[in-house]
Structure formats: C-alpha cells, structure tokens
Amino acid sequence: MHVITRKRLNEFAEKHPTATSGLAHWYRALKRNNPENFTALRSVFPHADQVGGLTVFNIGGNKARLIAAIHYNRQKVYIRAVLTHAEYDAGKWKER
To answer: CA gyration radius for the chain?
Structure first.
C-alpha cells in the first residue's frame, strides 16, 4: 500500500521517541502487505478498528493511535492523525 504521508509519522516520532519503533513496524507491515479489505487488514493488525469511515490503529503497545483513511481499491492509506492516547480520548480528531 502507498502511505500518504510518512511526514506525519516522522513528526510524531520526533516528539514522542518511545513510539518510533511501533510507527516503523506499522509502516513496514503496511508496505509489505496489500490488504484488499478491512478483514484482510485485521489479519495483519488485529487491533485495528473502524470508526466511521476511518481506521484506528494502536501503535507500539498502545503508545499512540494512528488514524487513517484507507482506500483499498486504490491501495492508498491517508494518515489523518497520529495522536497520544490523551489526544485521542479528547475526541477532537472526530471533528475534522
């Protein structure tokens, strides 16, 4: 899958170094696999959840949450946000 944009991963990793390995693992796993639907995605990321039209991933043993819009037909992943749990729980990301 094509991930747009890796810049958000790097920016979050700079602020939260403990999430760096988890973000790198997520990126590599998604690039290696090309899931055709959410069920196939769950075989790679068992804790991924759908929230509305977005997919939420737990990163690095719950160190962060990554929110993405996935277009399986085009094999593209649009990273909407990478958040700490406190930021995620505040729910402001749902307003975007």
So the answer is: 12
pLDDT, tens only, 44-91: 999 999 998 999 999 987 779 999 999 999 999 999 999 987 787 777
Q: Where are the beta strands (DSSP E) in the chain?
A: 2-4, 49-51, 54-59, 64-71, 76-83
Strands 2-4 and 76-83: parallel
Token couple for 43: 């075989």
Angle at 61 between CA 59 and CA 64, to 5 degrees: 40
Tokens 């769950």 map to which residue?
42
Residue 36 has what DSSP assignment? S
In contact, 55 and 96? CB cutoff 8 Å: no
Three-state secondary-structure class, residue 94: helix
- Domains annotated for the chain, with CATH where assigned, are 2-95 (3.30.2310.20)
